[in-house]
Amino acid sequence: MTQQIKGSSGIIEPDLARRVNLDTAEHDVINPDLTRSTGKGRRRSQMRWIMLAVGMVATLALPWLVYPPVAMDIAAWALFAISVDLLLGYTGLLSFGHAAFWGSSSYVTGLIAINWGVPFPLAILGGMLFAMAIAVPIGYLSVRRTGIYFAMVTLAFAQMVYFVANQLSGLTGGENGLQAIPRSFFGIESVETDSFTFYYAAIGLILLGTWAAWRIVHSPFGRVLVAIRDNPARARALGYDVDRYKIIVFVLSAGLAGLAGGVFAISHGFTSLQELEWTTSGKVVLITVLGGIGTLWGGPLGAAIVVTLEDWLTSSGFEGTGIILGSIFVLIVLLFRHGIWGTTQDLFQRRRKAD
Amino acid sequence: MSAFVQYTVQGLAAGGFYALAALGLAVIFGVLGVVNFSHGACYMLGAVAAAVLLDVLHVHFWVALAIVPVLLFLVGVLMERLLIRWLLRLDPLYNFLLTFGLSLILVDVVKRRYGVSGLPYERPAGMTGQVHLGGIGLPTYSVFVCLFSLLICGVVWVLLTKTRVGMIVRACTEDADRSRALGINVGRWVTPVFGFGIALAGLAGVMAAPFRAITADMGGNFVIILFAVVVIGGLGSILGAVAAGFLVGLVEAYGQAYAPTFAQVAIFVLMAGVVLFRPAGLFGRDETA
What we know:
The structure holds two protein chains of two kinds. By secondary structure, chain A is mainly α.
């Protein structure tokens, strides 16, 4: 058993870890000039720009393709999944309690918007800061355990937040949740009332969060995170304060989850205890794993699939959403552990090798 | 004083459910290295099975107490053979996710078949009244749950410490690789141990049936508290699981009695304290991260 516990510190299968390294290696390990001079490197960076352009077009076209509130849901869940991936894919920590940050931010955002009527980005900022504040003690305690324990401890703390929110019903509205959260935006009426225009007003926040995640992953700080994921003992031996790095990325990740949760609350105009429930934590992990961990693109892809699927199931009157989501989870974990994005990437890489 | 004794009995009864289920969780983790998220769903299945058996086949509580764990054992064997087995060699997180997906399915299937409102279950005959001990009236069923779960934990303890099978299981729990080196076929014990762990969750479910509202969602919060229990007790430790189970039951009962607003929060505060001061758990051994 000691063996298993020791093994659990590096969360991801070795081959997956290697794949992620391959993906990111070109940024610092290989000299950038050298990369540019080879045809392969140029093709790769071209590919990156094309993907980015496709991603941007898809993001901007989304409210044309689907019902705008659903488009907003997809964007919010995408950032939420990215925040989980920052921990799971890049640091090797599975947080099963991220609903605590998403949900608490949705409440604080709602309360600020209701009580002070400030423009919604300010309310969301408040929610995000609150999520980061509660992430400090939770992160401090949780990083004392690794692997499967980390998942269990974060899950338990999130449940504690849920109970506290349920008890503080004077503030949170208890079972009813917060109703009628206003959507003030500098008096611009179309944003405040029309969900199509609102999407374009709020998507900037989501993109900002996504950009922040990208910056974190591709910074020296992010490199240290990957080192911690792959070999915590070596990272410690190299002089990095592993626990401190983990706490910092935990708080940053909570901030992104809070940002997403705030946008979600404003978009819906209400929030409820469901956003704090453990099933919400599970759903975002499902989205992350379905899309592919350690890829950043996986989160948006998984969110698009799961949110659209759920919307379609509810509108067609099928009530067994859990059966479908659970089956997807089981299949993904059994057969496609790299997720959709990761599996596609693997196929491309295999083809490139064959060339 | 009499109130205090009543709360204690209540706490020990609630703790009995936690202890039995956590024992199953600990044994499974020990031998398979799997944290079974569907433990709560299996506990729910146990309670639902008891209710359905009573309703459809008029199977009495006492018979259900014997039959349902056997049924759940079979469920566990199926789960292990069909699903869990394929991921045993990988990081335990994958089985954690797999069993999470499984519990989503189980809960929703039960919800669609039996609805969201609770199934009725009457307390078995002779268990409805109170027993009087030294002038203090205690609900008979709570006393029974306390004693019975202690008995089962005792039986499992004897099985694990005094029999050959128990010795093998403990050896696998302690160090699967070394046991293998000593000629024990660890793989052979994986399936029955998983089934046994699930059966314990099912047993806790049957015992909870006359006590709690039987709904598809009853396992959701239960499994999270179970996780808190094993974090408090130390996941590798069987004694820790049982002791922490009763401890958490007591904390919950005293919390409900003296500070009802924060009864549920108290459990997690206790867990936070343990993680802070004894990260390996009260009975756990230190691990190297």
